[in-house]
Amino acid sequence: MSADLGRGLTSLFVVVLVAALTPVLVGLLSRLRIPQVVVLILGGVVVGPHVLDLADPESIELLANLGLGFLFLLAGYELDLAVFRQRAGKLAVVGWLIAVALAIAVVAALAELGVVRAFVPVALGLTTTALGTLLPILRDNNMLGGSFGSYVLAAGAVGEFLPVVAIAIFLGSHGRFIGLISLVAVGVLGLLLSLAPRLGRGGRIAQILSEGQDATSQTTLRWTVAMLLLLLVIASDFGLDVVLGAFVAGVVLHRWAPGNVEALDHKLDAVGYGFFIPIFFVSSGMGLDLHSIAEAPGRLFLFFFLLLAVRGLPTLLVYRSALGWPRRLELVFVVSTALPLLVALSEIGLETGEMLPENAAALVGAGVLSVLVYPAIAVAIHRRIARTPDEPGDPRP
Q1: Which single residue of 44, 59, 335, 353 could bond 286 by disulfide (Cβ 3.0 to 4.6 Å)?
Q2: pLDDT, tens only, 147-185
Q3: Inter-axis angle of helices 146-170 and 176-199, to 10 degrees?
Q4: What domains, with CATH codes, occur in the chain?
């Protein structure tokens, strides 16, 4: 066995052990109501190179990227595109555009002061929402039910998808025009994939897929993973962020999911949340540059506050006629939570040399802190609302 393979297996074992211990720890500390995502990230910090140095993040990078892919696959899968024709989708787009305008103004001021150098990555980072990261928390706390769930999913999807589109156009490795063409190409491919199953419906192939979905061949799950990897490869080859390919794969899968859809849901949850997604979260904690953050902690808290001010606070105004005050406040903290795209934007900024290392670390650190704090506040508000009678102004279909 080569030394690299041995190191990789050791790192993978440590990461998987952290993932396995997480639900046990969360159960033992059930009174504190700590989200599993938080424990996974903190566990990554502990076993990572900056603390105990028990695992090497580079040796599990491929599996972590697949975990990120599954995270956005499931986020796209939860999204019904019809919501964008409804009030929830329209309000979500308006809210995001206001956040973009605020981000441009704020980052321009920070650039003038010499605090930031990478204008576009930082500005886009302040407009993101970590819907994929939030899904486990939202599901565990029954926050996706009813009409309020449609507002949450729409706001989260817009805060995840539109920044990815902007990354593809403005930060693509082949330039803006090629990035736009590549983006259209991936979208067209996604559309074709969504139409393809209809051509074979009722035929012999469809019968084979249906018969094998619960057998050892696991046909529907295998084809789902194959589609995910295909779109990840194409997005990567086009110079786009792999997040885009994963999100498109989820949207496509939502439209054509073959066979027993409920059974496929359980299988995707098992493969994603059972193995790949925890690896991504632990890896994110391992990659957190604690040294840079310790040298300039003020930057972390600045970005942490700006995530709430730029992305969250416009929600209070945009949804004033749709949601009551407590629901709007709950949504503020939901949409202000960010992480995966902050990691991607920091990596892009460092690769191009535009982003200062201390800002890259602070931006990711702010994302981790947002995952630790903002969903917990949203959950507390949600539980308080659940204990009180329905209010006027609560969401209606």
Answers
A1: 44
A2: 888 899 899 989 988 887 787 777 765 555 565 666 666
A3: 130
A4: 3-386 (1.20.1530.20)
